[in-house]
Structure to design on (396 residues):
């Protein structure tokens, strides 16, 4: 029995000065003077549910010079994440059961974080032929052609009908590739509007990835108001950056978009933050690969925007980084309550960190935040009741 002592517990619903006891992977008691075999001293720190990321790319198999399951998991732990959902754009694509099962088995053997693997929607993410939808592994929760999107309207509508029948969810990267040649904003807005509409017509469960414009966000808000089964995420970089020319899909937008997204996150219209952690080598970035890493800086960036810039409290941060994503994934995580999985993170808000290549655990270093200093340092990450990460004093 481990007791985390002396910290301030913060989750999406409350802030309380108390200790938390974990046993057999679960939160077993919350209170004061709890008996323990082992104590983790959290004096002066906040204790939050470990973060849950619905959107990351670990590039394994096939592109492991950018990232692999182990380095991705280490990056996640350093950022305070206990659970990560991986996208299917690996090599080969996660479009058949062997590659799916191989990733799931290797992730389990690693025993670092909880990994959920998304299944591709179409073979090779080409949008031409669907994967074998009738023989999906039972453990698949979401399907996604993230990185590409679904181009054909009729095929997309029919896919939604089948997804509804299967009882799975779709995570959709919204991009009309014809329109992105004219304006990437139209590309995102038009396909988001289409898929909100199709979700309403078919009842298919749709989660909108990395929503980045005012109109796309409003479209999903409309769907929610209608009672459609839709949810949405925003990335830390779209909450923090505007008007910057750093290649990522969807692009960094205008300041008005950024502000709208932050306000939509504050009022609960946007469900959660997801990193879209997209590691690329220096050479690949020079060749134009879109994306940036995000797992290790997500909390710091979200804290800076929501707490420092917008004066919100940590409970909101916890809601959008742990509670809501856990609810969307339908896992017993994201809260500090008896009976929940013991996935916890200790954060020292008195410490700051400057992002440097040597502080990054990911194999890739592609981030425009390099050199910036952020408040809030993850000191300990507990997953499934076990300490999986402890920051050494003066580690960097
Ligand atoms: O910027 C991005 N990078 N957006 C995506 O949708 C895909 C991702 C990647 O896989 O690199
Ligand atoms: Zn995407």
């Amino acid at each position: 029995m481990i007791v985390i002592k002396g910290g301030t517990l913060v989750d999406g619903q409350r802030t309380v000065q108390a200790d938390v006891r974990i046993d057999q992977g679960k939160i077993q008691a919350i209170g004061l003077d709890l008996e323990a075999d082992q104590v983790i001293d959290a004096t002066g720190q906040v204790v939050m549910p470990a973060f849950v990321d619905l959107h990351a790319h670990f590039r394994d198999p096939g592109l492991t010079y950018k990232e692999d399951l182990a380095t991705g998991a280490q990056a996640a732990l350093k950022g305070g994440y206990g659970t990560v959902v991986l996208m299917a754009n690996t090599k080969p694509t996660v479009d058949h059961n062997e590659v799916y099962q191989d990733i799931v088995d290797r992730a389990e053997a690693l025993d670092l974080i909880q990994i959920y693997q998304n299944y591709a929607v179409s073979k090779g993410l080409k949008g031409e032929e669907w994967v074998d939808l009738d023989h999906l592994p039972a453990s698949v929760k979401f399907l996604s052609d993230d990185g590409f999107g679904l181009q054909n309207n009729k095929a997309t509508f029919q896919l939604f009908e089948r997804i509804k029948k299967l009882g799975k969810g779709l995570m959709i990267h919204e991009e009309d590739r014809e329109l992105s040649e004219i304006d990437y904003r139209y590309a995102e807005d038009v396909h988001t509007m289409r898929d909100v509409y199709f979700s309403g017509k078919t009842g298919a469960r749709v989660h909108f990835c990395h929503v980045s414009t005012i109109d796309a966000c409003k479209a999903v808000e409309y769907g929610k108001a209608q009672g459609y089964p839709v949810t949405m995420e925003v990335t830390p970089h779209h909450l923090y950056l505007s008007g910057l020319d750093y290649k990522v899909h969807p692009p960094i937008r205008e300041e008005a978009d950024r502000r709208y997204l932050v306000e939509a996150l504050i009022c609960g219209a946007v469900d959660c933050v997801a990193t879209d952690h997209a590691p690329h080598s220096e050479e690949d970035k020079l060749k134009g690969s879109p994306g940036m890493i995000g797992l290790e800086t997500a909390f710091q960036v979200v804290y800076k925007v929501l707490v420092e810039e917008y004066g919100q409290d940590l409970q909101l941060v916890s809601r959008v980084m742990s509670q809501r994503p856990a609810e969307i994934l339908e896992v017993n995580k994201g809260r500090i309550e008896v009976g929940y999985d013991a996935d916890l993170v200790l954060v020292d808000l008195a410490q700051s960190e400057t992002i440097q290549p040597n502080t990054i655990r990911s194999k890739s270093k592609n981030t425009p935040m390099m050199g910036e200093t952020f408040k809030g340092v993850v000191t300990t990450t507990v997953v499934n009741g076990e300490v999986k990460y402890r920051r050494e004093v003066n580690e960097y």
User: Anything to note?
Assistant: The chain has a mean pLDDT of 97. DSSP finds eleven helices and 18 strands in the chain. Residues 167 and 205 are 8 Å apart (CA to CA). Residues 57, 89, 146-147, 173, 248-249, 276, 278, 290-291 surround DOR (ligand 1) (CB under 6 Å).
